[in-house]
Amino acid sequence: MAKKVLVCNPIAEEGIEMLEEAGFEVDQKFGMSKEELTKMVPPYHAMIVRGSTKVREPTLDAAKNLEAIGRPGIGLDNIDVEYAKEKGVAVYNTPTATTISVAELVFTHMFAAYRNVVAGTNSLREGKWIKKELKSNEIYGKTLGIIGYGNIGHEVAKRADCFGMKVIAFDVVDVEDPGPANMVDLDTIITESDFITLHVPHIDSTHHLLSTEEFKKMKGSAVLVDCSRGGVVDEDALYEALTDGEIRFASKDVFAEEPPGDNPLFTLDNFHATPHIGGQTLEGQARAGTQAAEKVIAELQKRG
Ligand SMILES: NC(=O)c1ccc[n+]([C@@H]2O[C@H](COP(=O)([O-])OP(=O)(O)OC[C@H]3O[C@@H](n4cnc5c(N)ncnc54)[C@H](O)[C@@H]3O)[C@@H](O)[C@H]2O)c1
């Protein structure tokens, strides 16, 4: 009898087709409560869940046949991963599915900041023609400092190199192949960069990695781009740095609180924001769906 897969949130159609082509019976049921999920799960050998579906102990206890959980995306906070492992259930996320999407958002923010895209649009909406006031700079020849040189950091570096930027990077682990980047210490990134982009996880050691002291050391012309995780940048200190002119501009995709409500940063002209859309591209989401399906297929096939 074919193994059964329960898909609890929408994923790319290609992912569903891959599961079916591999010979599994796929059911899609979205928006279930924890209780509904727990009641439904016993016959299934695998589940595919996004962040909004919680897979906690009662569901895992009920999931007598479960062998694998696929999570298209990165965060695994919605799954009791350790308990799942104790029960012999393999858990897979798709950490690189949206790497390129995030790298591209970094450049979206860099160019938008330098070229006054929002101010230009707003001025035209107000019937103004302030061409001369919006004179700016090229990113060509500028120094880009990358903090956290993992998957996204590397993709950002490759693209920056194509734009003719000088790339420096810092990571706490040894990087075997730095590509176009020169590996330097954190202080060099902070003091020498024209652009700083963050690509670290939010863990104890990166909480408020950039705060008052670091902003004071940055170039007055520095632009900060943060598409990492809320909490890595001290938002109060950033507000001060932007209002006091310690740095030129900042752009953030991630916030300490999400949604961020009426964050004072939104009142500043030298601040751009996006609502955590780093991974929100059709391509990134399609990749997340197919990678989750691939991992689930491999696990179910391995177990026979
Ligand atoms: N904005 C979005 O929508 C979005 C989407 C995907 C990922 N992200 C976030 O982007 C970040 C990077 O993702 P990734 O896929 O490149 O992760 P990754 O694990 O490949 O790289 C992270 C790097 O940070 C380094 N690091 C850890 N602590 C550090 C420190 N104190 N100083 C310097 N480097 C440190 C690690 O050694 C690692 O090389 C993560 O926080 C991830 O959650 C955001």
Net shape: elongated
Could you say which structural class the secondary elements and strand pairing correspond to? alpha/beta
- Amino- and carboxy-terminal Cα gap: 11 Å
Number of helices: 11
Largest beta sheet: strand ordering: 8-7-6-9-10-11-12
Could you give the order of the helices and strands? EHEHEHEHEHHEHEEHEHEHEEH
| Major sheet attributes | 7 strands, parallel
**What name goes with the CATH superfamily of the largest domain?**
NAD(P)-binding Rossmann-like Domain
CATH C-level name of the largest domain? Alpha Beta
The ligands bound in this entry are: nicotinamide-adenine-dinucleotide
Number of domains: 2
- In CATH, the architecture of the largest domain is 3-Layer(aba) Sandwich
Total beta strands: 12
The fold-level CATH name of the largest domain is Rossmann fold
- Beta-strand percent range: 15-25%
Determine the fraction of residues in helical runs and give it as a percent range: 25-40%
Q: Write down the overall mean pLDDT.
A: 97
What does this structure look like?
- The protein is α/β, with parallel strands linked by helices.
- It folds into 2 domains: 4-94 and 283-303, 3-Layer(aba) Sandwich (Rossmann fold), CATH 3.40.50.720; 99-273, Rossmann fold.
- It contains 11 helices and 12 strands.
- It has helices at residues 13-21, 34-40, 57-62, 81-86, 99-114, 117-125, 151-162, 186-192, 212-217, 235-243, 282-303; strands spanning 4-7, 25-28, 46-48, 68-71, 90-93, 143-147, 166-170, 182-183, 195-198, 223-226, 249-252, 271-273.
- A 7-stranded parallel sheet has the order 8-7-6-9-10-11-12, with helices on both faces. Strands 2-1-3-4-5 form a 5-stranded parallel sheet.
- Strand 10, helix 10 (235-243) and strand 11 form a beta-alpha-beta unit.
- The protein is elongated and about 70 Å long.
- The relative contact order is 0.14.
- The mean pLDDT is 97.
- Nicotinamide-adenine-dinucleotide binds at residues 74, 95, 98-99, 102, 147-153, 170-173, 199-201, 205-206, 227-229, 253-254, 276, 278-279.
